[in-house]
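=== Structural record ===
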Amino acid sequence: MAVERILVVDDEPDICSLVSEILSDEGYKVSIAENAKSACEQISNTQYDLVLLDIWMPDQDGITLLKEWKEEQKVDCPIIMMSGHGTVETAVEATRLGAFGFIEKPLTTAKLISTARKALDAHPQKESAHEDKGADWLMPVGSSPVVEELIANCKRCAKQNASILLQGEEGSGRGSLAHYIHQLSERSNQPLLVISYKRFNELDGSDIAWAAIKSELIESIRKNQAGAIYLEHFNAINDPIQQRLVDLLQQLHDADVFQRFNVRLTVGISDQASKKVLSLFQIGFGMLRIDLPPLREHKEDIPDLINHFIDYFCSNENYPYRKCSIAAQNAFLHHHWPGNLTELKGVLQQLLIIGGEQEIELKEVQQLLQSQQEPGINTSGGLDSLFNLPLREAREAFEKHYLVRQLEKVDGSVTRLAEVVGMERTNLYRKLRALGINSKQ
């Protein structure tokens, strides 16, 4: 994948230097123009993927320059306007003239990175240049031999039509891998239907309830023709229902139902699965098996994973950006990670929530990792209990516990809470309501 080029146009050297440093750290190739004349020269000589354009410059204002570029079709990439004292009217005018977005100064790292990434992804040429953008995002992160072998196995399996068995410890990323393989396959233009283990555990055990879900599963196969189905957390299904589900899958396999509707079945299963179940899936169903490595077996990938997850939270959750110090990374490298990728992601999420925009330091990482190993960290049973939940529910459970704990420290003051957690009060009020937290209580 080619390095994306960004041009920063601003007459303030400090702004240019700051923006260049932030975006360079993110892997972009950044050029600087300190006035409109220099910007026009660079635009004529180089093709950029994104331009960050200041509005107030001494030789020519950014709005006029934007209008000229658009009218004369000199720039075919997204343009983001920047201003330290812009107005609503200015932002509206910039958007009307074709600007992708508007960023106010002083710039925040998270906003800058997030807006730049959205603009780059929205560029129409990006879609044709990177047709497997979704697969790139889902691809296992790292360059270790273990991860390279995992990626190679996924690519081989994606070319086949056989069913797939994904086996690995909890938190090793079975769900993401199922989506990654689907995006690589010829079925990617059809949906991947995820069937939660909860749907089966909701059954009351009666024959009527089982008949209903049996019909539901068959109907899902029929409707998802030429697509794929992912049965997640097979081990989490209650034993009596699990056996009935195995029998049903055997019947569907014997009747060639998946083949007749051209639907690929993928099953996620933990490393605690019995040999009998594994034998049935692999031999009885002829499933291709992919083993997901635990994080402790490829710790050399942790620095890349840290950057990946921080980028994810900043881009998708608008969390403040924090760079991870070398000493902190070293602490991550020496942790055992029993919860694998899910644990690492959860730890980084908490560090981004509680730390503002300062660099992630060794001391706070050590304190957080140590606190996770202490009993009673969470009234609902500790962080380990979160690893048994789907990601959305685990995230909500953590956020609720975290905010309640912080509310207790500030005696229920939402104003002080907003300062502690680094959130704007309007957004914080929405978050509290969504999580069912009453600050007055």
Summary: The mean pLDDT is 83. The domain at 135-293 is CATH 3.40.50.300 (Rossmann fold).
